[in-house]
Design a protein that fits this description.
With 122 residues, the chain is α/β, with parallel strands linked by helices. Helix content is 20%, strand content 35%. It has three helices and eight strands, in the order βαββββααβββ. The strands form two sheets. Strands 1-4-3-2 form a four-stranded mixed β-sheet, covered by helices on one side. The protein has a four-stranded mixed β-sheet with strand order 5-8-7-6, with helices on one face.
């Protein structure tokens, strides 16, 4: 019997301006744990992604990340208070109740990557 335990899965998030994107993710609360070879490893508690110093035409604008959280109001407040909207010119949407039984909001990063941050509801 083989051990098929998965320890982690991460997306490679594109960055048009690597330095700017690294600072953006730090500003909204992610920790940059390592960097090398054009890849920065970011995490928040047990979730993570890899920011890559690469972005082909149209990639970032068609890339989406989803983060499921315990308290969407707390996350929206954290992101809003970070002032990333004015600092980076990104878009931040208000929290909405979705038909798929989730309350969520969206934010774009400086490259145009869309993050959907949500909480399940009953």
């Amino acid at each position: 019997m083989s051990n098929l335990h998965v320890t982690e899965i991460k997306a490679f998030v594109p960055a048009k301006d690597f330095e700017l994107s690294k600072q953006f993710y730090k500003d909204i609360g992610f920790t940059m744990a390592s960097e090398g070879g054009g890849i920065a490893y970011f995490h928040f508690e047990h979730v993570s992604f890899l920011l890559q110093n690469f972005c082909s035409e149209g990639l970032a604008e068609n890339f989406m990340m989803h983060m499921l959280v315990a308290d969407v109001d707390a996350w929206w407040g954290k992101v809003n208070q970070s002032e990333v909207v004015s600092k980076y010119g990104v878009k931040l949407w208000p929290i909405e109740l979705q038909p798929w039984k989730m309350r969520d909001f969206c934010i774009t990063d400086p490259s145009g990557v869309l993050w959907r941050i949500g909480q399940n509801v009953e």
